Amino acid sequence: MIETERLVLRPLTVGDLDAFVELHADERVNRFVGSYSAGRARERLLAVERQWAERGHGLCAVELRSSGEFIGRCGLHYWESFDEVELGWTLKAGSWGRGYATEAARACAAWGFATLDVDRVTAMIRHGNVASVRVAERLGFSPSREDLLQGCPVTVYALDRPADEPSSGAEA
């Protein structure tokens, strides 16, 4: 579990199914990340649980410390096809504009660099997702390349390991 001043981040599980489906049902949210039926969400959450078990990292539920309310997801996902660890974030529209995405992503990046043997993390951002670009830039990410993620064009942003953060030696 990762805690920040305002947030608690914990591994996503199948127990988060309803909240996960609800998050992705909002058209303002899913226009960049897609929607999920209950069946597809269950498959995705089982894959998240496997990644946590096999790799020691994955996506987290983002909850408000003050109330425990689920407001989204954030975390580190390993893409075998790219051999990269991506930092991603998706929050409920009602939580936008409060700095939660930046706070959660900053905490995940710091945790990842402290825990994993990676020299950089990426953020794959679909074209037109200006809010996510702003979050990435606030965190120090810079554009690295153009690519396709699951058939969609993305700009891949990269954040290098801070010079003062030694590698843990743990596999990414």
From TrEMBL:
Keywords: Transferase
Short name of one Pfam family: Acetyltransf_3
Record's keyword annotation contains Nucleotide-binding: no
Gene Ontology molecular function: any one: acyltransferase activity, transferring groups other than amino-acyl groups
Domain (N-acetyltransferase) ranges: 7-162
Keyword Transferase on entry: yes
Name of the protein: GNAT family N-acetyltransferase
Organism name: Streptomyces jumonjinensis
